[in-house]
Every structure is written in structure tokens, then in C-alpha cells.
Amino acid sequence: MTQKFKISIGVITPIVIILLSIYVFNYILGFNPKVSSFYFEFVLLITSLLLIYFFTKRKIIYFNLSKIELNDFFKIAIVSYTMAILLQFISGLTYLIFQKPLHDKIDKQCMIELLFFLFIFPLSNELMFRGFSLNMLESLKKYTIRITKNIELTYSTLISGIISGGIILLYLIFNQYHLIIIFITISVIVMGVFAGYFQEKYNNFAAALLVNYSYTLVSALGIIISIIIN
Prior knowledge:
Layout (H helix, E strand, L loop, with lengths): L2 H26 L4 H25 L12 H29 L9 H29 L7 E3 L5 E3 H11 L12 H25 L2 H25 L1
Antiparallel strand pairs: 1-2
Helix pairs in contact: 1-2, 1-4, 2-4, 3-6, 3-7, 4-5, 4-6, 4-7, 5-6, 6-7
């Protein structure tokens, strides 16, 4: 397999799976956005595992999931929580400016959905966009953009982060402001880039998973607080 073909598969495959899932669940089966999102995450989870297994078995990609050293764990967690809190703070300001509730009143169904996205959403997304896609873009790691003296972002990290931002298309809520939707998309891209950066730095998928779970946990706390306030 040539590197160009490998990159093409890494970029196109997640996009095709997302678009097909949206079309099937929303338009053919006619599910509402909340129901379709549940099915979509399970489809994303299963297809990600199958893709990783298939390409790892054929030694096309290297998928490493191992224990993170405690010192590295705290480094990643601190950076991730700090960025997540900053993004949630900006989101809160957006809410205050527009004075429009982002979430429904709290109930049992709401908590079930929250728990679902807290555990399944980060896993399925990281498996697809970092476990599969980022590893397929490995040849682009030699191309970098210097951010600071000690930090460089690879093209593979940036591209996988941008692709993962497209996942927000599934969760568009039609009565929200476009500014909020754009902000959420940007947040996903930013955290996706951080996840890719740490995965490549430590050569460990667990690092990317830690970033996403940190972001999701802070987001969940933000949702709970906004529900209580409203």
C-alpha cells in the first residue's frame, strides 16, 4: 500500500462512515437527532474497532495502548483540564450573551444520555480519529508547524483534529444559535489536536483517550451546572 493511498483511506473513511450514518439514521430510518446519535456512536465504535484490527493485523498501522507513567498522566490531565475549563468558560460567556438555554430540564432520560456520552462518546471518537485515522496519517508526521520553542504540531495531528471536528454535524440542535454550533465545532477540533499531539508524543493511544475523557468530564459538569441553574 502506497503512502498516498494510506493517507487517503485515513482521511476519507471516517468522513464516509459519518455521512452514511447520518443519512441512514436521520433520513432513511427517520430517527430524531437524539435517537440517531445513540445508534451512530455504536456504529462508530464497532467500525473503529474493526478498522484498527484489520489494519493492525496486516501491519499497516501500529496501535499501542499501554499504561501511562504517573508523571505523564498528571501532565496530560492538567493540560487537558485547563484547556477544557477555558473552552467551557467561553461557552458560558456565549450563553450569557445570548441568554438562550442550551439544555433541557434535568430528568432521568437526560441523565442517561449524559452518562452515555460521558463514557461511549470519547471512546468511539478517539478510536476512529486517533486510533485509526491518525495512525493512517503517520507518514505526515515529518511535516510540522512550530507553535513554541519546544512544541511542534505535525500535519497528521492537525488533519485528524480537523476531521474529528466534523463529528459535530451529527449533534446539530436546530434551535441553537449558529455561533454556539461553530464554537462547539472549534472546541472539538482543539481538543482533537491536543489528543493527537499527546498520542504522538508518548506513542500511546491511552494519552489521546485521557485528553478526550478529561474534556468530556468537564463538559458534562458544565451541562449539569447549566441544567441546575436553569
